Amino acid sequence: MFLVSGSTGEIGRxxxxxxxxxxxxxxxxxxxxDELNLLYDACIQPNNSxxxxxxxxxxxTPDDYENLAQVIQQEYQHLxxxxxxxxxxxxxxxxxxxxxxxxxxxxxxxxxxxxxxxxAILPILQLSHSPQIIYPVIDNICKNYIGAxxxxxxxxxxxxxxxxxxxxxxxNLKITKLQPGPIxxxxxxxxxxxxxxxxxxxxxIAKDILMEIFTHQCETKLEPA
Length: 225
Description:
six-stranded parallel sheet; 50% helix; alpha/beta
């Protein structure tokens, strides 16, 4: 069972569709129920299951994350992987003039929400034989005027590094960073013109995810008891 945040964004939508073609069981997360229903119809296959989880990273409280984790555990019993594709760009602006509300929104969605969700679902991931957390980063990003996006990007990298070190001896958790590069999506069009389409990127991300999961499962099975 894969939990996918940001599933109704351009990259998330195409990634989920590619995963569904390989019969992956999905929990699709997003804030817009109409878009989630459309994605459900696009992903459901005879040999897989798709479950809708309406959730808003911007407004959710710590209690909302705990309740979400309880629902996942009660209804689906386990998670094999969490794939974080939720993100917002914010705005191009020097720090001296960056809008404070926009700063808060970017940090909340791109960093704080990811921390709270991972903290809530870690016990469920531990029930899997080979759990994974998979996240993309914006590589080759410009160094100036990216404000909250740059801070959140660095924060995610550090969060995942700390999490990996804290759990390297206590659970068989694999954390995988994907670097899809600039993509011609609504998010990336704000910073990079003339780049890869979401369809191409979604297909690549899905292939990378499936390869990482297959490799991790094989490595886990080969470890001595």
